[in-house]
Amino acid sequence: MLPRRIPALRGQLLLSTFAIALIAAPVAAQETDDGVFQMLGRIIFGAGTAKVAIDTPQAVTVKEQADLDRAQPNTIGDVLKGVPGAQATGSSARPLGQAFNIRGIGNTEQTASEARIAVTVDGAPKFFEQYRLGSFFGDFELFKRVEVLRGPASSTLYGAGAIGGAIAFTTKDAADFIEEGKTTTLRFKTGYNSNGDAKKLGVIFATRQGNAEYLGSLNYSSGGEIKDGSGNVLPGTAHESMSGLLKGKWTLGQDDDQSLTLSLSRTDTDLDDALVAQTGGAAAAFFGTADIHSIDDTVSLTWNNAYSANPLLDLTVQLSYTDTNVDKSNFSLGAACAPGRNQVLCDGEFGYATTTLKVENTADLSTGAWTNYLTTGVQFSSQERSATSSVGPYLFHPEGTDRKVGLYAQGEFTYQERLTLIPGIRIDFGDVTPGAGARALGADNISDTAFSPKLALMYKLNDNFSLFGSIAHTERLPNLDERYSSEGATTLPERLISPDLKKEEADSIELGFTVQKDDLLSEGDSLQLKVTAFHNDVTNMIAVTPREVGGPAVPYFSNIAEAELWGAELEAGYDSEFWFASLAYSQVRSKDGSTGLTLADTPAENVALTVGAKLPAQHVSFGWTGYYYDDITTSSTTTSAPHYDTHDLFVKWSPEEGALKGLDVDFAVENMFDKTYRNNLALDNGVGRNYKLSVAKSVTW
User: Fold this and answer.
1) 33-68 residue pLDDT tens
2) Where would you tag: which of 239, 253, 271, 386 has the fewest CB atoms within 10 A of its CB?
C-alpha cells in the first residue's frame, strides 16, 4: 500500500511513469551513452553466467564505476543509496559503524546478524562482527563494481544461509584505465567534502606488457567531525585512512583462453579518541572513547581456463584469504576495565581470518533450440575468530574456528531465447571448534549440515514483456558467536553457551514482471522497468534469550522467534541522448511471529527518483535525486520514526579531446536543504548539507 502520510512520496511514485516520459521528449537520432544511466541494462555476473539485469529472474542491482564516481562514497550507506530493498544500518556517518540491510535482514546491534548476508570481494568471502561496530571496512576507492543480489536465491552460489542476499565487490583492473593501442596510464585523483573538511588523495598506475597487465593504487583520506542538518556535531566521526591495491593479470594458453589473476588489497583506518560505540545511539556516551585501528586485507589468486576446444569445461580455481582486524586501546573509561561485562572497556584485539578454496566449472550443454549451462562447484573455507584482551579471553566474543565444505550445482536452461529455467542446489557441511575460553565452560565441537534448493524461471511474452518467479529454501548454520557466547551473572542471571541451537530456515517466493522498450520516443532511447514482489518466512530465527531479575540462567541465544517478511520493489530507468531518469521504490513489511510486531530491522517505505540531462557536445551530465522515506513504527521503538525527504544535485564533466582529455570532474551537493533527519535503521542523525568535489586526471602513453 502506498504511504498515506507523505504526499510527496505517494505523488512521486504515482507520477513516476509520467515524469520519466515527460523528460523523454523526442531528440535527434543518435546513440545513447552506452546505458550509463540505465541500471537494468547492465551485465550481472554474480547470479551465474553473465546476463543482463532485466533478464535475470532475481532482484539484483549493480553499481558500476560511473555510479561510484558520481556518489563519491564515504560509507556503505553512500554506496547503497538508490538501491531498492538495500541500505545501511547503524551509524549514519562513522566509517567503522555501518552494516548492510537487505529486505529487513541485517543490523549492527544483534550479534551475528550480518551472517545472513554474504559479502565477497573479488569472490573472496568477507565477514566481521563485533559489539557496537560495523561489518565492512574496505575503502570504496578500491572498487569499480558492486552487485546487490536480494533474497535467499543467492544461497546457491554464495553459501547456504544467505537469507537476506549477497553483496559482491569487484576491485579495479588495469584494463579499466588503458586505452586501446596504449600501454600505460597514470591517474591522479583528489577529492574534498565540505562537511567534516575531508580531503582525499589517490594515484593509480596501470600498465600492459605483452600478455600481462598490472595495476597499483594508493589512496589517503582524512576528515574532521561531521555535522547534522541542525549544525550539531556527530561525535566520533573524524577519521584517517589509507588503502592500497596491487593487481596483476596474465593471459596464458595457445588460444589465450587461460588467465591468472592475483589481487592484494588493504584498507588501514586509524581513529583517535573515537566512540567505542561506533554504531552511535544513546550508548555512545556510556562507553566513552578509545583509539581504534582497523586493518582490512583481501588476497585472492584466481586461475581460469575456458578450454576453448571443449564446451564441457570452463574451469575456475580460486584461493583467497581475507582478514579484518580491529585493535582498541587508550579507553577514556579504561579505569573500569575488568573481566566480565566491563571487559568491553579493556584494551583488546578482534579479528576474523578466512581462507577459502573454490573450484568451479561451467559446462555448455546446449543442443537444438536449448541453450544450456551447468555450473558445479566445491568450496572449502576455514574461518578463524580471534578476540583477546588485556585481562584474558572475551566470553561474549568467543574465539574458535568455523570450517565449511560446500557442494553446489546450478543449471541455466533457455529455450528459443524465450523460456529460462534456473534450478539450483547447495549443501554445506559445517564444523565449529570453540576456543579455550568457551571450552573451559564445557563447549565442544559441533557439526551440522545446511541444505539450499531453488528454482527460478523467466518467460518472455514478447520482446517487450517478461514474467519471472522463483522459489527458494535456505538454511543457516549457527556461527561461533551464537554457539559459544556467554556472560556471567550481574544484576541479571547468567547467560550460558548455546550448543543446542537449531538451524535458521527461510522459505522465499518471488514473482515479478519486466517491461523494456527501445526507440520509444526517439531512435536510440530505452525504457526499462522491473517489478518484484517477495514473501519470506524465517523459522527457528536465532535471537538473544530474554532474562528476568531473579530468574534462572539461560542460554545466550535461543531459537525463540519466527518471522514473516514481505513486500515489493520497483526499479525503472529511461535513457536517451539528452535525458535520463531512474526510479527505485521499496516496501518491506514484517511480523515477529511471537509478538506480532514489526521487526526492528524493517526499513521504512522509500522512493528514490532521479531526473537529469546530458550535453554530449560539452561532455557534461547533471541531475537531481530526491529520496523520500515514510514514517514507520517497529518493535524497537514506542513512537513512530518520522517521515523525511532529502535532495541531492550532481554534475559530471569528462572532456574527451584536447589537452583536457582524461579529466573527470564530479561535483555533488548532498542534503541540499540541510535537512535534520534520522533514518529508522540509523542510531543517530543523518549528515547535513555536504558539498563533494572529485577531480581526476589520467595521462596515457
Assistant:
1) 444 567 888 888 888 888 888 889 999 999 999 999
2) 253
- Least confident stretch, 210-219, 452-461, 559-568: 559-568
CA 361 to CA 649: how far, in whole Å?
45
| Whether 572 contacts 514, CB under 8 Å | no
Q: Per 3-state DSSP, what percentage of the chain is helix, strand, and coil (rounded to 5)?
A: 10, 50, 35
Q: In sequence order, what are the residues at sequence separation of 6 or more whose Cβ sits closer than 8 angstroms to the Cβ of residue 411? A: 372, 373, 374, 375, 421, 422, 423, 424
Give the mean model confidence (pLDDT) for residues 339-353. 92
* pLDDT value of position 636: 78
In this structure, the number of other CB atoms found within 10 A of the CB of residue 147 comes to 23
Length of the chain: 701
Q: How confident is the model at residue 638 (pLDDT cuts 50, 70, 90)?
A: low
Alpha-carbon gap, residue 562 to 593, rounded angstroms:
5
Q: What is the DSSP letter of 537?
A: E
CA dihedral 223, 91, 68, 694 (to 10 degrees): -20
Half-sphere exposure of residue 411, counting CA atoms within 13 Å on the CB side?
13
Quick one: pLDDT at residue 37?
67
Q: How many alpha carbons fall within 13 Å on the CB side of residue 477?
A: 22
For 21-126, list the strands marked E by DSSP: 43-44, 51-52, 60-64, 86-90, 98-102, 117-121, 124-126
Whether 485 and 556 have beta carbons less than 8 Å apart is answered as: yes
Give yes or no for a contact between 359 and 378, defined as CB atoms under 8 angstroms apart: yes
State yes or no: pLDDT of 29 exceeds 90.
no
- Tell me the percentage of the chain whose pLDDT exceeds 90: 79
- Overall pTM surpassing 0.70 (yes/no): yes
The packing angle between helices 7-14 and 16-23, to 10°, is 60
**Distance from C-alpha of 116 to C-alpha of 425, rounded to nearest angstrom:** 18
Q: Hey, what amino acid is at 540?
A: N
Report pLDDT for 392.
84
* CA proximity to 75, closest of 178, 211, 198, 157: 198
Q: How far is CA 535 from CA 152, 390, 553, in A?
A: 11, 47, 36
| Res 690 pLDDT > 60 | yes
Residues 302, 180: Cα–Cα separation, whole Å: 25
Q: What is the dihedral of CA 546, 387, 113, 265, to 10 degrees?
A: 170
Cα(540)–Cα(593) distance, integer angstroms: 10
